[in-house]
């Protein structure tokens, strides 16, 4: 029989571990090895730790306000854009460069100046947990012998991945995402319209288990609609209160709008991003998440990935006065302009399209196409032209990025595509003025007929 004193000494470590649980566990994150000198654009899913102005967020990450506005589809014509305040728990997508540094992918473009009473934990919290206190200390040689000093400039090694901008052979942009306390790998996969298996493979997970604080690489892939969910309203079945039924279908017809509401059912389509991979651009590749836009060619060109289309629509940004080579040769058309000539059997369409850039030189070319069904036809079907709009959209022209300035007074959280009222809202690619964009979406009767066909089979 074990003496009581001996038994207590054996149990004491376990009791202490139970009463004082270990708090030194480290969050997991994926590290991408690399050997080239190339760089890609990656995204950060940044959950605001406290109320912040847009200018403060841009300054925190050393990113242009215009780039953040583009990534989040914020209306750039909003008054006092830089002074708009977003509440804690709002989600903001931050675009960052992702170079190869010392054999691994990591962003080194963000720095932080230490203030009095700062700790590594406090600094980590300010970046939404995207970088851990240990990573900050390790990257800057901070330890017990070399503590943080007021005025010291720290490198913030933010996570990023490129993976050749590909996921299973599909053009992809990757976003770093911090796992929250009530999330699982399955819920995250559902939220971003991917699979648990894909997240496991991308992040090198041996099993589908994640912990709060882990940083995952989320693939935002360029693909046609991966699924359609039909939610039938109660009155359709004549059974009020019954649970809506759903059906998931694969579709190769591309995407339509965020949500189509009718008196019978709701259709929700999932989509991801637009790519320039098949556009024959010179010296440039661009991937833009759906429902947002990106600036390129020294901010002279804005390329939109509009809901309802997987085609990039590029046009002059309007924020740079020194831009040249915007007009197509031997025509009156500028990049993004389209001319439609009706014929007896349809129409001929001439478009001035962006073709990439080299330095300050912007490449563009005229593209001629013929269609049996033309834009605006009621009987438009799968042969409808898609791509550049018939006229440029002035509502999405970015404003000049402003430097951080002080706000005269706190402003209410604006409705500009970032939802601060619901911290659990993880819809990453919502945009402001969805209703207006829905009106501009391309509709094809063939897809709608197919939807009705599947619907009435049930």
UniProtKB/TrEMBL annotation:
Residues 110-156, 175-218 form the LysM domain. SMART domains: LysM (SM00257). It holds the Pfam family LysM. Residues 1-27 form the signal peptide. Keywords: Signal. This is LysM domain-containing protein. It comes from Dovyalis caffra. The lineage of its organism: Eukaryota, Viridiplantae, Streptophyta, Embryophyta, Tracheophyta.
